[in-house]
Input
Amino acid sequence: MRKRNRDSIVIAVPKGRVLEQLGARFEKAGIPTGALTAKSRKLVREGKAAGLSFLLLKADDVPTYVEYGAADLGVVGRDVLMERDYDVFAPVDLDIGRCRMMVCGLPNEPITGRGERPVRVATKFPHIAEQYFRSRGIPVEMIFCQGSVELAPLTGLADVIVDLVETGETLRQNGLVELEHIADISSVVIANRVGLKLRREAIEPILDALRG
Ligand code: PRP
Output
């Protein structure tokens, strides 16, 4: 296994739809990201700026790499941090990857009023969903789905879903509507707590540039 170079700053970033916006945001902050956005299967990308490298990860894994110090910094949606507790510091909101966590379902079907049985909720975010419905005093049965969760109300698997909505296009094309707003989501920079203290001179300028 390739051990990380302790002299370079390692930034964990999520593969997927936010990567393009993220590249632009880094460039604006004066951090070159050609290596990050290049079409390649490489999971470690050496940045053009000396001493900077990127790890390309599934979004859910970004805080794990940062918490354990395998990466100094990471970029992740607030949804990931809401769904599980991680011991990381979140110093900068990047104001990209904006979307909302919503309860969605078929039109004209209220969330409650299904007799004695709990409302069946399909979601990739069981913790967020559980907390939301508990705060509203609505008994629910959680059904965990990895993706394409919009299918659940259409097929009768669940009554409603809790999911991220960005443009609303997936809902529209599948005949679902937004029912209740749970939270606004955006991408944030997270930092390893110890790394931030020990390597402040190297990390703080990056955070400052991203804040700008
Ligand atoms: C996300 C989310 C919705 C969709 C919303 O899914 O779970 O399905 O995006 O975006 P929209 O409002 O712009 O249509 P993603 O594309 O990440 O895939 P997934 O269904 O596999 O989670």
